[in-house]
Amino acid sequence: MPEDHARSAPAARAPAAPDSAAPASAGTAPALAMVAVSKAFGGKTVLDAVDFALAPGEVHALLGENGAGKSTLMNILTGIYAADSGRIEIDGAPVAIRGPSDALRLGIGMVHQHFRLVGTFTGLENIRLAAGGREGVPVGAALGERVEAIAAQTGLEAPLGVPVARLSVAERQRIEILKALALGARLLVLDEPTAVLTDDEAERLLALVRRLAADGLPIVLITHKLREVMQAADRVSTLRQGRLVMAARPVAEVDPDGLARAMTGDLAGAPAIRQARPAPGAAILGLAGLHVGGDGRVGVEAVDLAVRAGTIVGIAGVGGNGQQPLAEAIVGLRPVAAGAIRLDGDDLAGASVRARRDRGLRYIPADRAAFALADGLTVKDNLAAGDVGAGRTGRVMVPSGRLARLAAERIAAYAIAGASPERPVRLLSGGNAQKVVLARELDAEARLVIAHSPTRGLDVAACRYVHARLVEAADRGAAVLLISEDLEEIMALADEIHVMSRGRLATTPDGRPDRTAIGAMMLGHA
Amino acid sequence: MLDGVVLERRQGVGRGRQAAVFAGSIALGLALSAGVLVAAGVPAGALFDEIVVQVFFTASGLAQTITMATPMVLLGLSAALALKHRFWNIGIEGQMILGAVAATAVAVGGVGGAGMRPAMMLIAAALAGLAWIAVPLVLKAVFEVSEVVVTLLLSSIAFLGLQHLLFGPMGDPARNFPVSPVIDEVARLPLFGFGDVHAGLVVALAAALAVAVLVDRSRPGFFGRFVGDNPSAARALGFPVVATTALFVLLSGALAGLAGGLVIAGTEHRLSQYVALHATFSGIVVAVLARYSALGCVVAAFFVAGVYVAGSTLKVFYGLPEGVILLVQGVVLLTLIGGQFLALFRVHREARPAPAPALPASTERAA
């Protein structure tokens, strides 16, 4: 429980983080200062006047849910995006970062979550490739010597002469860090570095982070794992929906509960869309001891769940914790390793996607462009795909008049702006493309709806619209499984809330955990 | 040098713009071709007469063009069906050879009653082409072997097999050339009395119509559109992705085989080494010009056949090498494809390195 953690965590950190390494006193210029940085994408503000400073030799954790703006802030720092306003200073001097090469020249080193390495090249060759003629970076044998010197000095052990594809994830990550250092990084940004590591490897990495910082290298640690903040960071800043809600607080002064609340926000602000909660009907979807492989990433581990007719069951959690394998297994796109998926009590083992859809299963995938829409085809074809697949428009031929009527009806019913039946879906906005998916999937025959991040990337109005339609489907008697990283959405819609972390589901006995409990479960220690 | 050059996909391309770009590309292609031909020694003044008048506006030229276009319609359909459904059939030539061999074998072997002979030949030809493409289809479906390599290599195998047959068991014992004996009158498709134009034209047009209906109006065609555009979505919608691909790929092979049968039963009347020369190239050219539309293949085949006929005239009268004819076709094709690209994208320069064009969705995901 969080209470226990509050007491144990600082103690665990103590030996590695002497308090003397903590933030520099006022007077010395910070290694990095980002001041009042704002950024909007297509009218949607993702960063709202955010300040962020990095003192020499500190580990500064940047905490926040998915979509809070952490990556956007760091992408501005590394020159991938340009800020709309605000300024960046390094060692007190204002700098202009117009592109990734500017950031590199200024000594900003970034280790991305998805490594940027060429698999067939060795570690050293990858570093050589990235170094390619940069000012101040040695060439030829001198570069190799420099890399080895850095490796020896920092204890970054990684085989440099072996093709990267043959190395473990942790080894590749160390090569990425070596690469950043060899290219002259004066500060390091680690984007969720432990997400891909095992627990032991994560421990090693955090120890390395402490060591590097102690040697004077300031480090930004992007994470949403509370434990890591408590263990490895000197200060912590927390972003929520593009705003800085906790600015550079010394870790010693915060407790995990406070951090979790800062990250997820207060309950008071949540709009409760679904007030009337009808008496639940029979269980439509049942998962029993379900295990699903994750293709090298987190899969599904021993999940039990029931979704009853007329209810919305929410699964909250940070992406990549097994949500995608869970959704795909239920839909029939991914094999079940063990356990059972039941629809109306019947085991679906071996049932095709077609058979499942014929029994009323519908799917709103997280990535609609990849799994729901054929965007080169017309709105008409995309709207009719469910009916044509089921053979409702004819077994052999597809009457074009009937398709056009169907399309016109659905465009009107869902107010899909800018959609004439013959236009390609590619030309629709995200919100309207999602409406096409909804109009098709939430038809009268829908009995079980798997909605995975159904509002990702949509504006506020479109979000509300999607929510209303999901509630409507549940009110009509469908069972809705809502898998989402958006906690507001889950809190507002779901009758019962579970949290997915490392492939497992957790909840409270009443099935209605509050924000603090959800935050704690998301962070994997409940 | 290319710093700051940005390609931007146009939001919606009007029909007028498309037509203008299409006409412009053809004009440019023909102008460049004219340059090539003049450089190769054709008098500039004779170009229009040789290419346009002789090929499309004289009875004998028109008949020749139509005869030439007949199998090309089928080759274009073959290429279009495979490419549209994400199957790179680079072995149309091989499938056509198999079709021609099968048709010749049926004719020489006297299979079926006399009245049924041409029909039997065409059916055998289609089945042979289908069987030849079934090999890469199965290899791809079961072992994920690239069909590009397999179809290409099977073309060479088919060609070597054809040579073996012509120099051996199917060769004409009365002649020294590697050709089969000429097939009987009863095995030939009836002529319409307009040059060499034969009943195969009806077969080709009917095939184009049937493919158009299948692709645009049938349920398998609907599935095929999804498989071609986004196979992952097709799978998530529960569409029969494998069966749909198999249907259209097998049909692609059958149409190529049928083209081989038409050439034997309709024009050549005997098997030679050159029966399927450039079949893959022609098929893909026709399919691309038609933008994979079945009825478009009829128009495109007529156009490409015209280029071929003009080419052979030029070859005879001006002694141009085969390569020049292929060059002209390539030039026209390239300008058309380039034109399509410009119709879809806008090229412009940005003053400074552009921030990655990101939607909120993609940043959220990375956050």
Topology:
The complex is a heterodimer of chains A (526) and B (367).
Chain A (H helix, E strand, L loop, with lengths): L1 H12 L18 E10 L2 E11 L4 E5 L6 H8 L7 E6 L2 E3 L4 H6 L2 E4 L11 H9 L9 H14 L14 H14 L4 E5 L7 H16 L4 E5 L2 H7 L2 E6 L2 E8 L5 H9 L18 E10 L7 E9 L3 E5 L6 H9 L6 E6 L2 E2 L5 H6 L2 E4 L3 H4 L7 H12 L9 H14 L16 H12 L6 E5 L7 H16 L3 E5 L3 H7 L2 E6 L2 E3 L8 H8 L4
Parallel strand pairs in A: 3-8, 3-9, 6-7, 7-8, 13-18, 13-19, 16-17, 17-18
Antiparallel strand pairs in A: 1-2, 1-4, 4-5, 9-10, 11-12, 11-14, 14-15, 19-20
Chain B lengths: L4 E5 L5 H25 L7 H10 L2 H26 L7 H18 L7 H27 L3 H21 L32 H18 L1 H11 L1 H6 L4 H28 L10 H11 L4 H25 L3 H23 E5 L10 H7 L1
Antiparallel strand pairs in B: 1-2
Any overview of this molecule?
The complex is a heterodimer of chains A (526) and B (367). Chain A is α/β, with parallel strands linked by helices. Helices cover 35% and strands 22% of the residues of chain A. Chain A has 18 helices and 20 strands. In chain A, α5 crosses α6 and α13 packs across α14 (400-413). Chain B is built from 14 helices and two strands, in the order βαααααααααααααβα. Chain B has a two-stranded antiparallel ribbon with strand order 1-2. The model of chain B is unreliable at 351-367 (pLDDT under 50). The interface between A and B is large, with 58 and 35 residues.
